[in-house]
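Researcher: Structure for this, please.
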Amino acid sequence: MAVVVKKVRKLGAGGAVGPSDRFTSPLRPLFVLKTPPCSDGCPNRTDIRGILTTIAQAEKNGITYDQAFGQAFYLITEKNPLPAVCGRVCPHLCEGRCNRAQLDAPASINCLERFVGDFAIEKGLPLKRLTEERHAEKIAVIGSGPAGLSCAYQLARRGYPVTVFEAFPKAGGMLCYGIPTYRLPRNVLDAEIDRILSLGVELRCNTAVGKDVAYEKLRTDYAAIFVGIGAHRGMRLGVPGEDAANVLSGVEFLHRGNAGERLEVGDTVVVVGGGDTAVDAARVAVRLGAKTTILYRRTIQEMPAVKQEVKEGEQEGVHIEFLAAPQVVVAEDGRATGLTCLRMELGEPDKSGRRRPVPIPGSEFFVGASTIIAAISQEPEFAGLESFRGERGGVPVDERGETAVAGTFAGGDVLELGIATTAIFHGRRAAETIHARLRGLTPEVNTPPPVIPHDKMRLDYYPKQPRAETATVPMGERLQDPDREVNLGLTEEQAIAEAKRCLSCGLCFQCDNCWKYCQDQAVVKPFETGQMYRFKLEFCQGCKKCAEECPCGYIEMR
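Model: Predicted structure, token format:
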């Protein structure tokens, strides 16, 4: 155990402390960068700390907040070209890992991403190329969802000609056809897609690979291929009677609505499922004027949908019947009139870690419905690309996202159902591999620094500050205008205040504590903004005070 340096005087003695009265330690301070847990929790490894501290330290760094917002935008788009989209649809796993939760409440990272994304759209900020060089090798991307758009963006900014083949009339994949407009306005999605296309990406809509153009033709004409076809086929309930005309899958229901089709659902809708698709479908049904019930076979604790979306749905009038599962679709003349269901109880955990629902004998009950929506899961539509289907349904890939066919990569929901941020990572991973291979480079292997937990920081240094709460459209108004965006986002003042709540976990933010508490003048304070503190180790006696008083855990004694 290291000896703590102390200045010692005998009781009652006067005068200065002499060298012989001082104990020293062999340990010396060292700046050690750490990974903040928010970035560690992000599937795309976004530099969240850098984004927030860029805004928080704008005045200290002598730049305007508009300049800081712009810099934050370019930090985000190093890895994600869709910040305004992700700021609306991402379930923000990062916030669940935020160290600030141990002090008061997590930083509102998701809302800050949306604010920066919206700022960039408003100001017309373009995406940046990494090079002005243009390469001859052409790349094909199948599907224009978040995975395909991410791959196309990362390759286009590296100088490659990219063609995106989209089976539907509009780009965006599930972002366009699976997420309602009250959550993701189409002008926001279109603006971020147009920004990617402006890099020279060619988009061919209404072109299904495997039907309108053969996959083998792409292999001949393109140096590499990325498959990001998503999962647009809804899974069946697997109960008798579900072939009735008014039984739809969740993805079909949302797709038809987002494509502009007039939906006739009647006055009573029952949605089966507990994920985001189920909640989205239920909230759309409410906007169509139907009394809507969600049947979910577990409890609210196991429900995978974003909790805020569940809360919003309930406030809008969606009723959730927990611990209930359908058994039979009751139909007359080919149309469903309702569901016979069973009450459930939770048993032992299944493979997902959630407790398995078990039917309660004799607990049958009936739920009437003019439309039934099955939103239990979804899978890829492999028409023309059947050779890629794996034993478990998704496309098998290696650690770089490459399929069994050399030069063909895949990502997004075609691998396994996930969130948009994960799909964006898959697209980026494939693009980086394709670029390295075509240019004869060794793929970078980035090993992040260790994650810093809250107990390695001085949380008592930071003042408690309330988390910003965003406004929402009043309940009466939102149902009168079904397409109106419900959540309104942060104001500029809120965004700045929220950025300043970032603890800068694991990285110096120039609080001066190490300099103020050093009794040996071994810490050199920088004179210019942006420079780092330095240690004069020849002055240091190893007292550990700098490390002990560093709020963010950036200093270690070694």
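Researcher: Any notable elements?
Model: The chain has four domains: 1-33+507-558, 37-125+457-499, 139-232+380-439, 236-375. Residues 1-20 have pLDDT under 50 and may be disordered.
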